[in-house]
Design brief:
single chain; about 375 residues; alpha/beta; Carbamate kinase; Archaeosine Trna-guanine Transglycosylase, Chain: A, domain 4; 2 domains; eight-stranded mixed β-sheet; five-stranded mixed β-sheet; disordered N terminus
């Protein structure tokens, strides 16, 4: 890929369009989210590599001097805590993970504060849980907090609040968190810095991915370090989440001290994941991605399945055949056919108990509160 085409591949946010995605020069990337993985900041034993923080801070400070608005999503807290406790492998019990996070987070933030202070850049720690983004009001509050920090020329350093998160409200990994943050703040670009050059296929770097869902994820290598989490599959999932909000993603090698600067200069660094041409509205994006685990499943008949998938209809009570799980009105639920195939996800207008009594043409889930599974396969 030439430098000219690479420059055009860093896009600004556009309104959802069914026909095209407008690619703009790198100079128009005003707001960007940079996620740095624990594999970049720590060694194989989980010990912090302080020398990696300095060049990262240098590059982000340079972004701020150029008038851009960078946000940093940083892993490494749990790994730092593991090193302090003398642990060689990531513990599985939640309480131990939370203890590692509590120990490591303060050390990590202290080092970031010192590194950015050299450039006169103030930083702020922002700790989030999945629950913060799964609630619409808290989602908006988190967005406004981040935008206010940027307006005040403060660089947010974001991580999952591992010290209080439980399995049901965790993001899963910081790649997903970074994609959710990028979408929340209407970023123009998401950069994930890892310890690999980008997405590799048969040992060769793939410079550009047009359709994330066409990648064979069974062929992806799994993480080999016991101190880290995620892997290339989670990065491609982050590309899918960000892409449906119109945000391009670049996966690059963060161990290179100038990787971010080269990306913003339009150089062919890493793998670019291009957003799909047709993408979701903000509400449907929130339903599809900010809400993580359905509270239950509504099973519908073939007629209702056809109406949803082919005619874009709302889900009516007459098409409901079974309700699985217990949930309240307003809960996030899956919609499946009688064969068990998930067709959609949405926000239920009735509780599971009420659905047993609702009949006829009453609307169970309005069309605007439904996201079809097939719409996410782009």
């Amino acid at each position: 890929m030439t430098n000219r085409s690479r420059l055009k591949a860093l896009g600004s946010r556009q309104e959802p369009s069914p026909t095209a995605y407008s690619l703009q020069p790198a100079a128009t990337v005003q707001r960007l989210v940079v996620k740095v993985g624990a594999s970049v900041l720590t060694d194989a034993r989980g010990r912090l590599l302080a020398e990696r923080i300095t060049p990262l801070a240098d590059q982000l400070a340079a972004c701020a001097r150029e008038g851009r608005q960078p946000l940093l999503v940083s892993s490494g807290a749990i790994a730092c805590g593991m090193a302090k406790l003398g642990l060689s492998a990531r513990p599985k019990p939640l309480a131990q993970l939370q203890a590692c996070a509590a120990i490591g987070q303060s050390e990590l933030m202290h080092l970031y504060t010192l590194a950015f202070a050299r450039h006169g850049v103030s930083v702020a720690q922002v700790l989030l849980t999945q629950e913060d983004l799964a609630d619409r009001l808290r989602f908006r509050n988190a967005k406004q907090t981040l935008l206010t920090l940027l307006h005040r020329r403060v660089l947010p350093i974001i991580n999952e609040n591992d010290t209080v998160a439980v399995e049901e409200i965790t993001f899963g990994d910081n790649d997903r968190l970074a994609a959710l943050v990028a979408s929340a703040v209407d970023a123009h670009l998401l950069v994930i810095l890892s310890d690999v050059e980008g997405f590799l296929q048969h040992g060769k770097l793939v410079e550009r991915i047009e359709a994330v869902n066409q990648i064979d994820r069974r062929a992806l290598a799994q993480p080999t370090r016991g101190t880290t989490k995620g892997g290339m599959a989670s990065k491609l999932e982050a590309a899918r989440i960000a892409g449906h909000s119109g945000i391009p993603l670049i996966i690059a090698n963060g161990t290179r001290p100038s990787a971010l600067g080269e990306i913003l200069a339009g150089k062919p660094v890493g793998t670019l994941c291009v957003p799909p041409r047709a993408r979701l509205t903000s509400r449907k994006w929130w339903i599809a991605f900010a809400l993580r685990q359905p509270r239950g499943t509504i099973v519908i008949d073939d007629g209702a399945a056809h109406a949803l998938s082919e005619r874009g209809s709302s889900l009516l009570a007459s098409g409901v055949r079974q309700v699985r799980g217990r949930f309240e009105a307003g809960a996030f639920v899956a919609v499946a056919d009688v064969a068990g195939r998930e067709l959609a996800r949405g926000v239920a207008g009735y509780s599971s108990a009420e659905l047993a009594r609702v009949r006829g043409g009453k609307t169970v889930i309005p069309r605007g509160h439904l996201v079809l599974t097939k719409d996410l396969q782009r």
